[in-house]
Every structure is written in structure tokens, then in C-alpha cells.
Amino acid sequence: MGKHVLVIEDEPNIIEAISFILSRDGWRVDTHSNGHDAVETVHAKAPDLVILDVMLPGKSGYDILRELRADAQTQALPVLMLTARGQNKDREMAEKMGASQFMTKPFSNADVLACVRALVGAG
Amino acid sequence: MARDTLTGSRIRERRIMSGMRQADLARLAGISPSYLNLIEHNRRRIGGKLLLDIAEVLKVEPSILTEGAEATLIAALREAAAARPEAGAELDRVDEFAGRFPGWAGLLAASLRRISTLENTVETLSDRLTHDPHLAASLHEMITTVTAIRSTAGILVETREIEPEWRERFQRNINEDAQRLAESSQALVSYLDSADDAEADLNAPQDALDAFLADHDYHLEELERPGADPRALAERLPGSAARSLALPVFERLAEDARALPYADFVAATAEFGPDPVALAHRFDTDPARVMRRLAALPEADVTGPLGLVIADASGMLTFRRPVRGFPVPRFGAACPLWPLFRAFSRPQVPLRDRVVQPGTDGAAFLCHAIAQPVTPPRVNRDPVLVAHMLIVPVPGGEEAARDALPVGASCRVCPRALCDARSEPSILAEGF
């Protein structure tokens, strides 16, 4: 099983923290910080898992996820959604769009790590 | 119609409500059934001992028969009962309650209005938290920063061996994020603190406008003068939302006053009566403007009391000038049978109907309605329509109400069981 993660998030310090935690756990981490060409980046990097923020400049995480699910190549790609909201409707929206997991900010490092491991069966 | 001329109608209502036959009441009161029939149809005045005797037989206070209770008060009490059906309010005795204890009944109705206003405020607050873009952006910024701090602090605490350069880097990040969090918190507090007229903004603007108009008996003297300043008048309302809502209303009233000058219009009304179509012809204007003008003048100048409601095509009432005996719902949908709504299906055709509301002394009202476009003609675009309905009380009691179109205030407080237009069950099993 590969250990390659793409983090799509626009907050540099969150990117840095997540990258550090995952790198220490043996993951290869790529990052991307806007919604415009996020789908193209997913195709180019071909990660084993994507961590995707909902609020991104250019295109929302939900729209990116919808495009990924509509493409046969990325249809089954594990995606962990991150959002600053924790309301039921956001969780429902994430599930409806095909998110593999949903995590509300602020989160603990241990939770992110556990979730990522579980999603690619690396636990 | 003067309320004391309807004593007979109230005797009839009370008798029917208690399930008593006319002949039995006549016998117990010591009069002939035919004489009681004349009384019940308001063709004989009644007072003195006979009134006391009938009141005693019907087990009510004589004042309830002579004065009745204010219809709008009764409607408000019914709304209160509808809002809390589990309270088991005795709806069949609402008239008696309002008649015997008008002060308490008024207090209850006022409390209901207050509750509705507060509920509105809560809704506005919830709406603000969800939809205020500034608030939403500020909270998102704060949560994002807190996330970065939590994650970075977690790394510093949980990672046993961390290179000095990484440690320094994360400490710097935390410092930056803490600074950012402090700034965004202060900005948020300032925003919440400095919101102009924040509390007034949270009250329902429509309520503020309604109250302002009612306080002035719907006649705004300032707008009658040459060079009237609607903006200055609107500034007297509490809250920016209410002021924004009031401004176009006041501008329209000022425009109406210019188009239909006070002295000429009052003189024409004395000649034609409150007839919007006749007056529109006389002044070469549209009936909706005439209706607004009639409703913006003191009662004595327009030959008596009258009411006006204005609705948009969604059915929302955007203006209410109530008239005694014709309850207009304060919240929610009004009766779809009102000519006001029928007017939307025949734009620009003036409609005129005699209507009667249930449980309001059986008095009739002449309703003039018209739906008119408020937008200029545009190719292949339907106009935006607004409907006006002028409500004019008709003298003549039950006689005038005969053959009148039965309507209600709103389904929830309407006792008409067999109504094709009913959209929800009534809380009233039968009319009182």
C-alpha cells in the first residue's frame, strides 16, 4: 500500500503542521493551496489519499470532490474533508458529495493521523 | 356600523351558541317569538328591563350584548389559542372573555404580539449568524487560526525529538497565529459592539413601520406639505432596516399627496364617496393610488373608517391599515378568498365585492381590489404586480351581509368548515 498524501489547504501554517506530522509517520506529502487547478494536481500527483479543505480560493472543496467522483480515475480515491463548520448539513453535504471521511476544525494531530492511516488501510 | 346597533345580532349569536331555540328564549323573556325575531335582526332597538331579562336567560353580562367585544381583540386571542393549542383555551367563550375582561384580554393579546416580536428577533439573530458574510468570514478566520495553533502546539508537545530549526519554525508560527487570532478577535468584538442601532435592527422592521403609522393614525401631515421630505420622516423610525423599509412607503405617500392634493381630493370624496374607480376617473390616475390616498387621510375627511391592505404576488402583506370588524392577520398568510388575491388573476381590472367575516357581528364590507404592475413594460418579461384592497364597512348589519362573499382572516382562526380554499385545519370547531 502506498503512502502518498496530497494536502489541499490554503492556510500555510496548517499545511506545514499536517505535512510535518504525516512526514514523521512515513508519508510522502505533496501540498496545494488553491481550488482553481486542484483537480489537475490530483491527477498529476496521483496520491493514495487527499486531504481536502472545503473553503478554498477559486473553487470549493465540495466542487473539487464532485469532479473527482465524476472521473473514473479518481472515483474511489480516499478523500478526507476538512471544514471549519461542524453542522449536520455540512457533514451531510460532504457525505453526499462522496467524502470518505469528514473532520471538523480544529482537530487534533492524533485524529488526523488515525484517520489517514485508516483510510488507506495503513493502520 | 355602530356596535350598539348590533345588540340583536349578538343576542342571536349567544342564543345559537347555547343551543336555545328562538321560541324558548322568547318565552323565558316574556315576549313573542316574532318580536324577538325583529330584535335579533336589529329591526327593533332593545334596552332596559327586556335586555336584562334576555341577558339573564342567556347567562351573560348585559354589556356583552350591548357592546360586544372588539373583533380584532378576539382575533388576537384566537391567534394566541392557535399558537398554544395544548393550553386548551375555551374558544367557544372567547367573546365572553374579551367582553367581560377587556383589560386582561388586551394584556394577553399584547403579550402575544410581544412574543411574536421576540421570536422574530431570535430568527433574525439566527439568520445573522448564518448569513452575515462579515461574521461568517471572521469566525472562519478565527477557527482556521485556532486549528493552526492547536496543531502546531500539539507537534511541539507531542514530538519527543524535534530538530532545533523545526522547533524555532513552529514557535514562530504559533507566535504569528496567536497575533493573528488576537487581531481577528478584536475586530470581531469591535464589529459586534459598533453595529449601529444593533438592537433596533434586530426588531422586526415591518412592526416598527406599522407602529409608526398607527401612532399617526395613518395620516402623515408632514408629507402633505410642499417640499415634503420623506427621508427626514423615515429617519424618525428606530433601526436602519425599518428606515429603509419606510422610505419607499413615505416617498410613495408623498407622491400620492402631490398627485391628489388634499382639498380637491377631500371634496371629490364627499361627492363620489370612497369609490376608487370613480375617483381615479375624476383625477385621471390609477385606482391603487386613490386607495392609498383614501387610507392616508383622517377618517372624518373620507366619509368614515376604512382599511387598506397591499400585497405582493407571493401573498405577503406589505401594508396594513386595519379597520374595525375586519381582522387582518399580523403574521402568516391571509384568507386566499379576499378579492386582494383574486385581483392577481385579472391584472389591472378593478374588482369590487361585498364580503363578510365570521364572528364579527355579521357586518359586511365592500372590498375594492386591483392588481397593477409596478415595473415598466419590458420585452418578453412579465411585470411585477402589486395588489391593493380598500376595505369599506357597509352599514345595514345582517341585511347588508346577505349574499356577501364569506371570507375569513386566515385559515387557522377561521371557523368555516366547508371552504374550498382551506389550506390548514382551523382551531375552531364551529363558529361561536
How would you sum up this structure, described in words?
The complex is a heterodimer of chains A (123) and B (432). With 123 residues, chain A is α/β, with parallel strands linked by helices. Chain A is built from five helices and five strands; from the N terminus they run βαβαβαβαβα. Chain A has helices spanning 12-24, 38-45, 61-70, 88-97, 109-119; strands at residues 4-8, 28-32, 49-53, 79-83, 101-104. Among the domains of chain B are: 3-108, 434 Repressor (Amino-terminal Domain); 132-195; 303-432, Beta-Lactamase. Helix content of chain B is 53%, strand content 9%. Chain B has 19 helices and six strands. In chain B, strands 2-1-5-4-3-6 form a six-stranded mixed sheet. In chain B, helix 7 crosses helix 8 and helix 12 crosses helix 14. The longest helix of chain B is centred in the middle third of the chain and has 31 residues, at 164-194. Chain B is extended, with a radius of gyration of 29 Å. Chains A and B meet through helix 1 and helix 5 of A and helix 9 and helix 10 of B.
Offer a few descriptive terms.
heterodimer, A: 123 residues, Rossmann fold, five-stranded parallel sheet, 42% helix, 20% strand, B: 432 residues, alpha+beta, 434 Repressor (Amino-terminal Domain), Beta-Lactamase, 19 helices, 9% strand
Write a brief caption for the model.
The complex is a heterodimer of chains A (123) and B (432). With 123 residues, chain A is an alpha/beta fold.
So what's the CATH class of the domain at 303-432 in chain B? Alpha Beta
What is the second-level CATH architecture of chain A?
3-Layer(aba) Sandwich
Biggest contact: A-B, 18 and 21 residues
Strand content of chain B: 5-15%
Unreliable parts of chain B: 196-202
Oligomer, anyone?
heterodimer
